[in-house]
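Hey all, sorry for the wall of text incoming. These are the two entities for the joint prediction.
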Amino acid sequence: MLKLYTYFRSSASYRVRIALNLKGLAWDAVPVHLLKDGGQQHVPDFAALNPNELVPVLSDGDATLVQSLAIIEYLDECHPQPPLLPADPLGRARVRALAQTIACEVHPLNNLRVLRYLERQLDIDADGRSAWYRHWVERGFSAVERMLAESPDTGRFCHGDTPSLADCCLLPQVFNAERFRVPLSAYPTIRRIVEQCRQLEPFQSAAPEAQPDAE
Amino acid sequence: MLKLYTYFRSSASYRVRIALNLKGLAWDAVPVHLLKDGGQQHVPDFAALNPNELVPVLSDGDATLVQSLAIIEYLDECHPQPPLLPADPLGRARVRALAQTIACEVHPLNNLRVLRYLERQLDIDADGRSAWYRHWVERGFSAVERMLAESPDTGRFCHGDTPSLADCCLLPQVFNAERFRVPLSAYPTIRRIVEQCRQLEPFQSAAPEAQPDAE
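and here's what came out:
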């Protein structure tokens, strides 16, 4: 049985939950509360599992997997249907580039530990932290919007008419941006695709509010 | 002919240069100076090529590829020898997780545009910026060190006895950390592997000081 160490609001966990659901795999959620007990991701048992002290972590039998994009590619290789990457190398590179624009250029700057460092070590107030958050979302989403709007490969979803690794990353980042009240009117293609995702059950049941640990 | 838009000191460009050299591919460097002219990555012609306004960008005939890890996987798919990822899904997931720990947890926090934001928007002084830089390197390298030291899959290189995508990411991040004078004594496995990398010609000729735009 697949076990996913997850936090309902973690957008990296959300990506993997979508992928598991798109594959139709059965999985158990093991909630890791990022705020309780000084952060359950720092508890020794969990740190032994993932030296990064981050969620998500996937257990597959004896194997332990970390890093959301690596986990999703693993699932795609072990359970090829439906594919989350296209078959051609250029298409695969495009989907990975979209995913990495979110996972490398936006999310790392805006996750809990970074916002905490700004607050606690650098004494940046709430307005300053919001401006920081918005800045990196806007930089990243402007790039993603152009990559989507200018390419004939964009379909109902980020790449063609079926969800891919890129869509697994896009919806969680939009959820996160909405939570921080970042205006999204400048990104019509992103918004259109996210609306498509939200109509599909695998995305719906991966949503933060649908998780057993939702608050 | 492959064309790589690159900046000698950019560690994401450095990763792709290593991969191109490991594959034995011929490529032309197109230097993009990140500091001159207000940053040549922001010039309209370049922004049209990469909406992220970041290096590296790879041109392969009519195709334009962005995001260093996506580019390296593309090269690995189009030019399979020597492989930069192992054959088994678990090994592939491990190599990708190591690469992503650097590319998602360390580098995005410490690149030029983030250090500039700290300086210009948040008025963080040089000591504060150094502490920030060191903090994220130490968090990331502590995780990578444990992932390497605790796994029987680690060999002369990050995964077995031949270089992989993980090594393409590790050496540039160590180069970067050394430039910022981050002490590395706590990471003996990382240092041992990086010494191995530095003995190989494909890594040597990818080094910042070996580039045509080196200063």
